[in-house]
Design brief:
It is built from no helices and 11 strands. Strands 2, 4, 5, 6, 9, 10 and 11 form a 7-stranded mixed β-sheet that branches. The chain has a 4-stranded antiparallel β-sheet with strand order 1-3-8-7, with no helix packed on it. It is mainly β.
Length: about 130
C-alpha cells in the first residue's frame, strides 16, 4: 500500500511561485522501480487533468503543455519525496493539486494512477 501526503499549497499572486511536496509513507517508491509519480489538478467544475510526472527509477519527466517552462517536477530519493516547483503562476493554475502513483511507466493518463493523496489547494490571484 502506498500512502501519499501533499503539502505546500496556498495563496499567491499571479507571477509568483509555490513549491508542492509529495511524501510517501510505509512502502517506498524505491521498492517499485516502475512507479511513475504524477501531479494532477482539478479546478471547480472541471475534470482532473495531468500536470507533470516523473519516473521514480530513472527520473524521466513529463509535462502538460500548459505548464512547460514554468513547472518543474523532481524526485528526492533519500527523502522519498517528489516536488513540483511552480513558477510564473497564472490565475488559471488555481485548482486542487493531487499527487498520485502509478505502476505504469511514464503514463500521463489519470486512469492509470491507483494511489492518490488528499490534495492541496493552490489559489493564484490577479
Amino acid at each position: 500500500q502506498v500512502q501519499l501526503v501533499e503539502s505546500g499549497g496556498g495563496l499567491v499572486q499571479a507571477g509568483g511561485s509555490l513549491r508542492l511536496s509529495c511524501a510517501a509513507s510505509a512502502r517506498t517508491f524505491s521498492s517499485y522501480t516502475s512507479y511513475t509519480i504524477g501531479w494532477f489538478r482539478q479546478a471547480p467544475g472541471k475534470e482532473r487533468e495531468f500536470v507533470a510526472a516523473v519516473r521514480w527509477s530513472v527520473g524521466d519527466t513529463y509535462y502538460a503543455d500548459s505548464v512547460k517552462g514554468r513547472f518543474t517536477i523532481s524526485r528526492e530519493l533519500v527523502k522519498n519525496t517528489v516536488t513540483l516547483q511552480m513558477n510564473s503562476l497564472k490565475p488559471e493554475d488555481t485548482a486542487v493539486y493531487y499527487c498520485a502513483a502509478s505502476i505504469f511507466r511514464g503514463t500521463v493518463n489519470v486512469d492509470d494512477y491507483r494511489y492518490w493523496g488528499q490534495g492541496t489547494q493552490v489559489t493564484v490571484s490577479l
